[in-house]
Amino acid sequence: MNRLNSYPLSREKKNGEKTLKKLARANTCASTTSDLILKNGSNIQLLSDPNSNAIASPVISINELLNIYMTDSPSPTGPPIDAIQSPLTPSDFVSPVPKIAFSPKASFENSCLIQRERILEELIESETNYVNSLQLLLNFYITPLSNAKSCSIMFTLVKSSIGVLQVNHNKLLRFLHSVADDVSIKKNSSIAAAAFASGICEYGIDTYVYEEYISEYADITRLINSKHAENSTASYLALQTQIISGSETYLQHTQPSTMHMDLSFFSLMQRPVSRISKYRLIVELLLNNTFEIDQNYYCVQNCLNVIKAKLNTVNKSLMKIKELNVSNHIHTLVEGLDRPIEYFGKLNLSGSLLCIWVEGGEVKSSWASILCFKSYILISSVTLNENQTTCTNTFIIPLNSCSVSKDYINSANFGGLVSDYPLSLKLQFENSYCKYELLLASIIELEYLIWKEHLESYIFLNGENKFDYSYSRNNQHDVFKCPSNLNPYDIHLSKYDCENLRLCYFLEVIPVEITKSNGKGLRQSECVSIELKFRDRLRVEELLQAIWTVSLPLLGTKAISQNESRKHAAWRWKIRAL
Question: Which Pfam family, any one, appears in the UniProt record (predicted)?
Answer without folding.
Answer: RhoGEF
